[in-house]
C-alpha cells in the first residue's frame, strides 16, 4: 500500500513538474488563443456594437454574413484565389530564383541581395510604388507595353487584372522564400547528384529524384506559411484599391474597400469593415471564425498530403 | 508517418493560424461601456481634442481656435491632435483610455446616427438646456438635423459644407458659354462643348462624372434631386422615389456622352489627387467641378491661369424653380462617452460651436460655411464674393442633407455601390438594381438594431 502511495505521489510530483515547465506556453495559449477563440465564438452569437452590453441574437449574425452581407462571397472567392494562385506562383518563383542563384558562379552575393531587398520594403510603400508603376494612364509599365505593341492592361483599375497585379507585387517580394530555398538547395548532398549523374540521369531527373525529395519539407513549409499569409492578406489589396479608386475619405465621402468591383476585397478587410467601421462585432466574429476554419482546413489538408512530399526520416 | 519536421511545421502552422483569430478577435470583440463624469469645469484640467483637418492652413486655424478657448478658459488646457480619420476616432471612442480624446470632431456627418445610437458620444441635450441654448434657433435647419438621431443630440455642428459648381470661366468663354448651367440638360450640353479630346484621352474634359472622381459621390449628386431615402417607418425609398432613378440616369448619361466609363477611368487615373495642388480643376484639365466651399480657397492658392467661377449645382429640368439649392453636410463635434472630463469638454464644445466670434474667425480662416445663424449674419465674416454662393446654398430652404441612420452611412455606401455598378455597366437594369439596393439597406438596418 505504502509503495503504491509513494508511486502515486511521485507521479503527481512528476506531472506537476511537467506542468510547471509547460506553464509559460499554457498561460500564453490560454490568454492568447483559448480565451479569444471562445470569445469570438461567444460574440458571433451576440448583438454587440462595442458600447452597449452584448445581447443574445442567436444565429442572426451567421445568417446575415452568409445570406445578406453582399461582400462576403466576393471576399471569400478573392481570398481563395490568392491562396491557390498566388501561393503556387510564389513557391514556384521562389524556388526558381533560388535554383538560379545557386547555379551562379560569380556575383552570387550581389544577386542574393538584389532579390532579397524588395522583401524588406514596407507593404504600404511597395503597394504605392506598384500602383504608380502599373498606373494605366501614366505608369511606365504600360508605356513600355504600348510602345512594343502589347495591349496594356488596366491593372489595379480593372477587376480582371487587379489580382494578377497584386500577385506580381508579391512575386517581386519573394526574397524570403528565395533565401529559405537557397539554404535547402545548398544542403542537398552533392554525392547524390554525382551518383545520379553516373547513372545517366538528365537535369530534369536529377531535379525530380534528387533535389525535390531533399527539399520537400521546405516546400511544405513554404506552402503552409504562404497559405496562412494569403489568408491574412489585408494591407496590400486595401492600399491598392484605395490608391487606384482615387477615393479619399473626406467630407461626406464613404469608402467601401475592394475597388474595382470587389476584386481586391479579402476576408480580413471584412472583419475590419464590420467590426471597426460598422460597429457590428458579432458579424465580424463570424467572418473571423470562417477565416480560422478555412486556415485550419487548408493546413489539415496539406498535412494529410504531406506523405507524398515529406519522406520518413526527414 | 509523422516526422519531426512536419510536426514543427504543423505546430508553426497551427500557431500562425491561431494568431489570425487571436489578432482579429481580441481586437474586434472586446470593449467597454460608456461612463459619465462629474468633473468640475472650473478646476485646472487638460482636455484632449482630436480633429481631422490636415492642410497647414487648417491646422493653423484649429490652433488659433483653441488658443481663443484657452484664453477664455485659463484653467483648461487643450491637447490638440490633428489628421485623425473616422476609423481612428471610432476605435478611440470604443477603447477609451488615458490617451483617448475627450472631444472629437469628424468630417463625416454620416456617422452621427451610429455615434448617437451606440452611445459613443454623450447626449448634449442636457448640456444645451443647462446652458440655456436652444439648438433649433442657434443652428441652421439642415445642420440641426444632421447632428441628432432619434432625439439624441450627440453632436453639434462645427462649421458646415455646402456643395456647388466650380467652373473655368476662361474655358467657358472659349467655348462660347455665357453663363453657368442651371439645369442638368444645360450642364450636359456645356460639358460636351467644354470637352476637347486628344487621341485616346482628353486635353480638357468638360466634367468628370464618374463616382470615383473625388466629391462626385452619389449622395452629392442626389442632393440636387431632393431624395427622401427613408419613409416614416424607416424603410428605404430609393426604389420608389423617382428622384433617385432620375439622378442615376443623369449621371450615367453624362458618363456615356463624355467618352464612356473606361476612357474616363483611364483619364482619371492620370489626374492629381483631391487635396494636392495638381487637382484637375486647378490644372485646367477638367473645366467644371462638383465640390465644397473649401475648394475656392484651395484653388486660389494654386494660382491657376484662368478665372474661377462659382455657382450652385444644376437642378433637374422639372425643378428649375429650385435652382440655388445644394447638398449640405459639415463637421461635427461631440464629447466622448469614455471621457472623465465631460463638463470641461462641454465648455470646449460650447465655445467652438456656439461662440459667434469663434465660429466666424474659424470660418474666415478655414473657408467653411459658418454653422450658427448668428455667425452667418455676422458683419465680421470675411469672404470672397464668390463664397457668398455657398452661404446662400446653406441658407436655401430647399437644400438637402442625407438623414442619420442607426448604422451610420452604410445605406449611402450601398447606394454608392449601385452607382459604381451602374456607371461601369455591370448593372444594366436600374429598376432591379434599386430594388435590390433598397432591400439590402433594410436588411442592414435590421441587422444593426
Architecture blueprint of SSEs:
The complex is a heterodimer of chains A (314) and B (449).
Chain A: H1 2-43, E1 46-47, E2 55-56, H2 60-68, H3 72-103, H4 108-120, H5 123-133, H6 140-147, H7 162-172, H8 175-186, H9 190-198, H10 203-231, H11 235-245, H12 267-277, H13 281-304, H14 306-309
Antiparallel strand pairs in A: 1-2
Helix pairs in contact in A: 2-13, 3-7, 3-8, 3-10, 4-8, 5-11, 8-10, 9-10, 10-13, 12-13
Chain B: H1 4-28, E1 45-50, H2 56-72, E2 76-81, H3 86-95, E3 103-106, H4 112-118, H5 125-130, H6 135-138, H7 141-146, E4 156-168, H8 169-174, H9 184-193, E5 196-198, E6 201-207, H10 218-223, H11 242-257, H12 261-268, E7 286-292, H13 294-301, E8 308-311, E9 328-335, H14 342-354, H15 356-366, H16 373-377, H17 388-395, H18 410-423, H19 430-448
Parallel strand pairs in B: 1-2, 1-3, 6-7
Antiparallel strand pairs in B: 3-9, 4-7, 4-8, 4-9, 5-6
What can you see in these coordinates?
The complex is a heterodimer of chains A (314) and B (449). With 314 residues, chain A is mainly alpha-helical. Chain A has helices at residues 2-43, 60-68, 72-103, 108-120, 123-133, 140-147, 162-172, 175-186, 190-198, 203-231, 235-245, 267-277, 281-304, 306-309; strands at 46-47, 55-56. In chain A, a hairpin with a 7-residue loop joins strand 1 and strand 2. In chain A, helix 9 (190-198) packs across helix 10 and helix 10 packs antiparallel against helix 13 (281-304). The two termini of chain A are 47 Å apart. Chain B is of the alpha/beta class. Chain B contains 19 helices and 9 strands. Chain B has helices spanning 4-28, 56-72, 86-95, 112-118, 125-130, 135-138, 141-146, 169-174, 184-193, 218-223, 242-257, 261-268, 294-301, 342-354, 356-366, 373-377, 388-395, 410-423, 430-448; strands at 45-50, 76-81, 103-106, 156-168, 196-198, 201-207, 286-292, 308-311, 328-335. In chain B, strands 1, 2, 3, 4, 5, 6, 7, 8 and 9 form a 9-stranded mixed beta sheet that branches. In chain B, helix 2 runs antiparallel to helix 15, helix 9 packs parallel to helix 11 (242-257) and helix 18 (410-423) runs antiparallel to helix 19 (430-448). Chains A and B meet through helix 1, helix 2, helix 10, helix 12 and helix 13 of A and helix 1, helix 3, helix 12, strand 9 and helix 18 of B.
